[in-house]
């Protein structure tokens, strides 16, 4: 099952503010959102993790970021 994440996932992985996280999402090389859920943009978790590995290798590891509850419902593409 494909997992989706919101801006909060990026905020926690990078330890940045919501404003800074949104700035990053507007970069040309940032993954395109997979859609919206409850009026929020969502991304494929795999796309975000790949982007972080290339562009922000110093990001917190996923298991240390406290991302519980941030994955969007997979039924909302």
Report on this structure.
With 77 residues, this protein is an alpha+beta fold. Helices cover 35% and strands 16% of the residues. The chain contains 3 helices and 4 strands; from the N terminus they run βααββαβ. The chain has helices at residues 7-14, 18-25, 45-55, and strands spanning 4-5, 35-37, 40-44, 71-72. Strands 2-3-1-4 form a 4-stranded antiparallel sheet. Helix 1 crosses helix 2. The longest helix has 11 residues, at 45-55. The protein is globular and about 30 Å long. The model is unreliable at 73-77 (pLDDT under 50).
Give a brief rundown of this model:
The protein has 77 residues and is an alpha+beta fold. The protein contains 3 helices and 4 strands, in the order E-H-H-E-E-H-E. The radius of gyration is 11 Å and the shape is globular.
Topology:
Blueprint: E1 4-5, H1 7-14, H2 18-25, E2 35-37, E3 40-44, H3 45-55, E4 71-72
């Amino acid at each position: 099952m494909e997992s989706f994440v919101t801006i909060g996932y990026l905020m926690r992985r990078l330890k940045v503010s919501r404003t800074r996280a949104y700035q990053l999402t507007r970069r040309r090389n940032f993954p395109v959102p997979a859609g919206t859920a409850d009026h929020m943009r969502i991304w494929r978790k795999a796309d975000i993790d790949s982007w972080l590995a290339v562009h922000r290798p110093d990001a917190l590891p996923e298991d240390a970021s406290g991302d519980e509850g941030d994955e969007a419902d997979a039924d909302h593409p």
